[in-house]
Write a structure and sequence with these properties.
Number of helices: 7
Structural class: alpha+beta
Helix content: 55-70%
Number of strands: 9
CATH superfamily of one domain: Band 7 domain
CATH architecture of one domain: 2-Layer Sandwich
């Protein structure tokens, strides 16, 4: 707002850089401009202050679709006062010459004007759309329609108001209808989620089956290797037993051959000794055959003496001596006869 300094009988006004001041004296415009600073007599002038900066107006628009459903659009309308002098003549922007405040509420009046115009345009657009299209396609369509229609509105142009832009942030149905519209999408998303869950479970089951098959294959391969190991160990044991048996056989055959050789050697030795003894006996017999009986008797006595046990003391009686001599004589005759034979 403009700053007004009071002095006796006069006032001084100093406007801001975004404020357009229109001074009217005796029904005629005497001064108009932005950012003015001047002295004036409060009893003889009328002042209007029109802001020329860009402004935004939030608006909530209600409309009914072609299928008789209510929708609400949240929009923001950007505007500015392009012709402040025309605005000052169409809308009350007059200010108090003592305080510099607006006497009325001009911005609220402009807001109602823009909101009602936008409301009418929203009704015209949404009434030809069903609820589904109004919710899904209504935002861009409504923004373009409002922006073009408000910019070409003759009433706004004559008033000096220029619409700089329109933003539509949301077009929503009533809560119950919005939930109903969201249900198919939610069901579709839920089905996709369930499908993804089932596919994930199927993949998990497939992986578990592959893991089980790998474990089973590993167990089979391990069992096969153990079977081969046992077979190899058995073959090794059989080969070892065969080698031991072969070694024992060879050892036994060697020992048997050695025993046979030893027995043959002993037999040959005995045979040689027997032949030598037989030859010696034959030589003895031949010698005894040609020997003197007395000599044979002496030899017999010598053999007898060698075979008699040890005698500590001996008492010889005439009878014993006679019997002994008789036996020696008989032995001598036996030996002589044997030698002769």
């Amino acid at each position: 707002m403009a700053d007004i300094t009071r002095r006796p009988f006069v006032r001084h006004l100093r406007a801001g850089a975004t404020s357009h001041i229109v001074e009217i004296r005796r029904g005629a415009q005497v001064r108009s401009g932005t950012g003015l600073s001047f002295w004036f007599r409060p009893l003889s002038v009328a002042l209007s202050e029109v802001p020329v900066d860009d402004r935004e107006l939030p608006a909530v628009l209600h409309a009914r679709t072609s299928d008789f459903q209510q929708v609400t659009a949240q929009a923001t309308i950007g505007f500015r006062f392009a012709d402040p002098e025309a605005v000052a003549t169409r809308i009350d922007f007059s200010i108090d010459t003592d305080q510099g405040n607006w006497r009325a509420e001009p911005l609220e009046h402009v807001g109602r004007l823009l909101t009602e115009s936008a409301q009418q345009l929203a009704l015209d657009l949404v009434s030809g759309l069903p609820l589904g299209r109004a919710v899904t396609e209504g935002g861009p369509a409504l923004r373009a329609h409002l922006e073009a229609s408000l910019a070409a509105d003759e009433r706004l142009l004559h008033t000096g108001i220029a619409v700089t832009g329109v933003r539509v942030t949301a077009v929503r149905a009533e809560p119950d209808m919005e939930r109903a519209l969201q249900t198919p999408a939610r069901e579709s998303v839920q089905q996709d989620a369930d499908r993804a869950t089932y596919e994930r479970r199927a993949v998990a089951v497939e992986r578990e089956r592959a893991i089980s098959e790998n474990e089973l294959q590993s167990k089979i391969e391990l069992a096969t290797r153990e079977e081969g190991l046992f077979a190899q160990q058995g073959a090794n044991a059989l080969r070892k037993a065969a080698d031991v048996a072969e070694a024992l056989r060879i050892q036994t055959e060697g020992e048997a051959a050695r025993d046979r050789l030893r027995a043959a050697a002993q037999a040959d030795a005995k045979r040689v000794v027997g032949e030598a003894e037989a030859a010696a006996q034959q030589a003895s017999v031949e010698a005894y055959a040609t020997a003197d009986p007395q000599v044979l008797l002496a030899l017999a006595l010598r053999d007898l003496a060698g075979n008699l046990p040890e005698i500590g003391s001996l008492t010889i009686t005439p009878d014993l001596l006679t019997q002994a001599l008789g036996r020696f004589a008989q032995d001598g005759r036996f030996v002589t006869e044997a030698a002769r034979a």
